[in-house]
Amino acid sequence: MNLQEISSNLDSENARDRMLALASLRNIPADDAVPLIKKVLNDHHVALRSMAIFSLGIKKTHECYELLVNLLRHDPDYGIRADAAGALGYLGDPRALEPLSRAFLEETDWLVRFSAAVSLGNLKNPQAYDILLQALESGEVMLQQAAIAALGEIQAVEALDDILNFANSPDWLVRQRLAEALGNLNHPKSLAALQYLAKDSHPQVQEAARLAKQHLQTASTPPSQNS
What homologous superfamily does CATH list for 158-221? Predict the structure, then answer.
């Protein structure tokens, strides 16, 4: 479909037509795609709205940041706010640190807080450390998973002792996130913990530990010198 056909289909009364039209923007340049994505940002079909919001995270123009922050702050649907938080992580705009931090601190819905924590990791900004530590101490398993992964993403070696407390978590996904995070934290304690997690009772934790250990060892190996 050309842009005119896509635009026309986005106005269709048939949700399937609108969904297909939105999907067809995948290979359209961002400057052309975003004005069309905006047509369905307030669609009554929730799945279509979610898809449009995700698209704003990967079709990066000067408009996307403000559109997503507005949804995160003001949309009445917590699922949409969570989608907006997630899309801000994909967008990677450093300004998102403030609205994502605020969302984590002020939101009452766990899904929005979870998405905010994940996206703070995606930004790879060490300034998210204090917020992520609060997520780690929240007592909510999903938030702890997100915080462990994000602390690894921002390479917060100073959080090692805090996240290592989860090495014996009864939730294998927490242990898997821990193994993955340790692969980004170059420290002798990380290698020791990965040796332990490599013997975990769950095969996915074992595999995550193996890959993380491999990553650490590769990162620690100096490049060969050509004579």
Answer: Leucine-rich Repeat Variant (1.25.10.10)
